[in-house]
Amino acid sequence: MSTSTGVNVRFPFDAAFPNRSGIINWEVAKSLKYLQVLRWGALAVGVLYGFSHQLTLSASAKSAQIDRDYAHKQSLIQQAKAEWTKKTMPAEKKTEGGGIITDPNDSRFDLEAYLNMKAAE
Questions:
Q1: Which residues are CB-contacts of 15 (< 8 A; sequence separation ≥ 6)?
Q2: Distance (Å) of CA 56 to CA 49, 52, 60, 61, 64
Q3: How many whole angstroms separate alpha carbon 32 and alpha carbon 41?
Q4: What is the mean pLDDT of the chain?
Q5: Can you spell out the DSSP letters for 9-73?
Q6: Per-residue model confidence as pLDDT tens digits over 67-88
Q7: Is 117 helix (H, G, I), strand (E, B) or coil?
Q8: How far apart are CA 79 and CA 65, in angstroms?
Q9: How far apart are the first and last CA of the chain?
């Protein structure tokens, strides 16, 4: 048996075959087989868990993206409705009772009259 300063990767086999004379400790050898089955089983379970977890994460991310898209579309619709009502509003509704047009997009908008009205308030 060689001496090494690193990790002994042959340790389980040395336990099954302690003296290398052909005498096999079968209980240890069986446990090594079970250990290998256990290791491969744990690997398979880990891979299956990772796969299912990835599916769950991607489904929740997709659902969140759909919700964000829907909320964005709703805000765009509300903004378009507000612009449309502002555009199609009758002229008498645009004035606030004082006869002064407060809509800056109106062709009859008077900035001086509007500023005087705001200064008086």
A1: 25, 28, 32
A2: 11, 6, 6, 9, 12
A3: 14
A4: 79
A5: TTHHHHHHSSSSSS---HHHHHHHHHHHHHHHHHHHHHHHHHHHHHHHHHHHHHHHHHHHHHHHH
A6: 999 999 999 999 999 898 888 7
A7: helix
A8: 21
A9: 100
